[in-house]
Amino acid sequence: MNERKNISITQDRRVRRTHRTLRDQLLKLLKIKPILKITVSELCELADLNRSTFYKYYSEPKDLLRQMANELFGDLEKNLRCLKSMKSLPDTVRAIVQTIYEHRDICNVLFSSDVDMEIVNEMLFISHDHNTALWKKEFPSADIIQLEYLYTFMTKGIRGIIERWVTTGFEQEPRYIAELIESLFLHGANALLKNS
Questions:
Q1: What structural domains and CATH numbers belong to the chain?
Q2: Cα–Cα distance between 146 and 133 in angstroms, integer?
Q3: What is the pLDDT of residues 71-100, one digit of tens each?
Q4: What angle do helix axes 117-124 and 104-112 make, rounded to 10 degrees?
Q5: How far apart are CA 83 and CA 87, in angstroms?
Q6: Residue 187: what pLDDT?
Q7: To 5 degrees, how large is the angle CA 74–CA 33–CA 14?
Q8: Is 143 exposed, middle or buried (0-12, 13-18, 19+ CB in 10 A)?
């Protein structure tokens, strides 16, 4: 029984190492070419793995990128679930910015290259329903059109801030970026919805 358990642990380590190697090499390639130009052969050659190993887990390099993005989305969604009211906004924004910082390798690729923009847009609109419902509670007289415009304004603005932060090499601390987003959000929301 112990022998079987040891074999399983060894295989798990090998699988994790394989995934990590493929991930690292894909990130290297994405710095020099778009995802649709990356072939399985060149990725496997760079990773020093057989193509059959790659195909055991993925059908194309874009699948691997999607898995990496999904890990980021999962962490972002976990942080967004903590957003219960406007009072929890500062902690939630800090947690989200910290998550982006912790996943800076994939964020660097997502925001600073010709990666499929569908992935970035998905990341930005991940909290649409949750936030508009929350804002409706906080600003009951606001209509859905105002809330939609606020969401569009905020996601495009946040994307611009995050994109600049990422493309300048994360020069500022995550706390600074979180406070900037928070401040801009609160002023933007109050200005738009104060007459509602």
A1: 1-59 (1.10.10), 66-196 (1.10.357.10)
A2: 12
A3: 888 888 777 777 665 555 677 788 889 999
A4: 120
A5: 8
A6: 79
A7: 50
A8: exposed
Residues 6+ apart with CB under 8 A from 155: 124, 125
Identify the pLDDT of residue 184.
85
Q: What span, in angstroms and rounded, lies between the C-alpha atoms of 148 and 142?
A: 10
157: amino acid identity, one letter: G
* Identity of the amino acid at 1: M
The two tokens of residue 158 are: 């946040």
Residue 155 CA neighbour count, 13 Å, CB half: 18
pLDDT in tens, 120-158: 677 667 778 777 887 788 778 888 898 888 888 888 888
Q: Which of 51-60, 84-93, 154-163 has the lowest mean pLDDT?
A: 84-93
